[in-house]
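lol so apparently i was supposed to do this last week
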Amino acid sequence: MNQFLSERIINMETSATLAMAAKARELKQAGKDVIGLSLGEPDFNIPDFIKESAKKAIDENYSSYSPVDGYGDLKQAISRKFLRDNNLQYGTDQIVVSTGAKQSLANVAMVMINQGDEVILPAPYWVSYRDIVKLADGVPVEVPTSIDTDFKMTAAQLRAVITPKTKMLWFSSPCNPSGSVYSAEELENLAAVLREHPGIFVVSDEIYEHINFRGGHVSMAALPGMYERCITVNGVSKAYAMTGWRIGFIGAPAWIAKACTKFQGQITSGANAIAQRATITALDAPLSKIQFMIDKFHQRRDLILSLLGEIPGFKLNVPEGAFYVFPDISSFFGKTLHGHHIGNAADFAMYLLEVAGVATVTGEAFGNADCIRISYAASEDEIRQAVARIKAALT
Ligand code: PMP
Ligand code: GLU
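anyway here it is w/ 4'-deoxy-4'-aminopyridoxal-5'-phosphate bound
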């Protein structure tokens, strides 16, 4: 019956992160011993003080539709957060709360991109950018980077791909999947190129801002001349371990925020009321309340790097944020391991799943075919076991 489906959905890729997580879950249910390092999802429980405020919101009957763009007092809390953490002044008319940062991104694509508009995606990029852009009839323009430059796009690379059709640049720092963090100077170099092209807008996806081991997060919108053309995307999924509560938000020029609200009003009517109330509590809390998770991610980063470093053939950068490593495993291409031919990163990830019982994601999904992504948002025990199994499967 697929012939009756729209071309839109036929042409869309399934999210590789979610597909791999579903496959790992399926294998586990069938009794196979699988360690899931495919999904970028904190393994911590939501801190109790946030849970309590959600319970209170239920008792206080927050059960009706909220305003489409989010409760006013939540938007005030987001405004305070932007000022506290990012040195950005966004009024409440510049903020839109959505059902996860993923929806924030989809809103922006739908209100900003016209057919044929080019959107620059430094690769590796987060898996969903490409399909969200395509859904909006945009043309993703991938800018390949490699482990040798810590997976960062240079100003010269940016300049070289700009055309009269360029509408936007989308990137994340800290980056999913590479964990790379752009320094203030590197961002400034990109901004200098963009200043020569006032018609190009930037989606700065800062959802991993707090999971940053070098410290000193810099927002693109805070650089001179960038505020009016940046959409700053953030949310509570990662730093507050609230993935399933589905709250994301943007800070943007008011005219963009207004368009996103108009779009969202026809699509979701707004984000979940209870989760919005809990997000006020989360964002108003001192950052010291979530520091323990960031410290843990840091320790795990060091652990997984040292363990993977012992496996011949793995080429690693030192990710300075998020909770992923993105090793270049292209040295295995063309080899046959225990009867399995490894032709590409997808074969490699499938081999690890079948032979080592470890779920990872092929780098192809993120626009880099030499790498795989391993999420270390897992316990130290799981990390140790997983890497030991990977090592055994490869030697
Ligand atoms: N951007 C990036 C870079 C991500 O890794 C994620 C993780 N899912 C998202 C956006 C979307 O986050 P969410 O929809 O859970 O807020
Ligand atoms: N962002 C996470 C990841 O990259 C969650 C999965 C998703 O939303 O695609 O794994």
